[in-house]
Amino acid sequence: MLKNYLKKKIQNLHSRTFDDLKVQNGKLFEHEIQKNLKNYKDISDVYFKIYSQDYEDGIIQYLLKSLNINSVKFVEIGTQDYSESNTRYIFETMRCEGLIIDPLKDLEHKIGKFLKLWQNQLFVHNNFIQAKNINKILAKYSFQDDLDLFSIDIDGIDYWILKELKRQISKIFILEYNPYFGPNKEICAPNIDKFERFKYHSSGLCWGMSLKAAINIMREKGYTFIGTNRLNCNAFFINNNYINTISINLPKTKNLEPYTDVKFRVLKTLKKSIASLEQVQEEIGSLEVFDIKNNKLDYFNNIF
């Protein structure tokens, strides 16, 4: 018993030391961003990763600094255990107030093992969300408006959640999209309660929304598309009221192919290669997706 206790204590100490080193590296990169804030012309110039999945930390810091946001009010939906997320670096290094939402069992207990919860205010809603209850949940915790950052990545009904949100709810918005849906179609996963992508289809290829669908609905919500993460699966948007605060060149949305070039592997039947559109069609061609433009469910192959 004592041996296991000491082993766990040593592991926790090593983990905390490693986290401290990661934060120090992040602070150095932050300094470089601040120093060159007006010189960046492409979102890829500010990529860096501390706790995010794929270099989102750098983009977020660039946007927060450009908008001169020093105390952050955020919502992040789809965090897993919060060890790797879009807002953890903010929680670790800035003054903030946050709400995170995820159905992972015992989420708050898991987070408490590695996060100093006392240093900021963090609300944890540990359950599934649906389009019909998202606004009630946000209101329950007083996160229904005037946010600085909103991030959603739930591998499922993201589009339907987004559709229900208040217009311009946040200054910065991060939205996962499905690059396997291609650059030209407006499609998304069906609006199914407790949607799980690998239960809906074993390939896991059907989730979220196409980038075109994301850009169009965000335009209606009062946002401008400013780029994506390195892996082409998270899109960044800025509230139109703050568009003049950033220096980067805006992407051309008439050609979204550079942002739907898939750079990660999902298809389990492949080893190191990435699925082509033909392989995606073969896998989920007879699967129902929602055709947003025509407002109906249809088979994937019929839309393509």
Describe this structure in words.
There is one protein chain. This protein is α/β, with parallel strands linked by helices and 304 residues long. It has one domain (2-260): Rossmann fold (3-Layer(aba) Sandwich), CATH 3.40.50. 33% of the residues lie in helices and 18% in strands. The chain has eleven helices and ten strands. The strands form two sheets. It has a seven-stranded mixed β-sheet, sandwiched between helices. Strands 6-9-10 form a three-stranded antiparallel β-sheet. β9 (288-291) and β10 (296-299) form a beta hairpin. α1 packs across α2. The radius of gyration is 20 Å and the shape is globular. Residues 2-7 have low confidence and may be disordered.
Low-confidence stretches: 2-7
**SSE topology string:** HHEHEHEHEHEEHHEEHHEEH
3D shape: globular
Average residue-wise pLDDT: 90
Distance between the termini: 60 Å
Tell me the major beta sheet.
Answer: 7 strands, mixed
What is the CATH topology classification name? Answer: Rossmann fold
Give the radius of gyration. 20 Å
Total count of helical runs of at least 4 residues: 11
Tally the structural domains: 1
Helix percent reads: 25-40%
Structural class: alpha/beta
Work out the strand percent.
15-25%
Count of strand segments: 10
Strand order of the largest sheet: 3-2-1-4-5-8-7
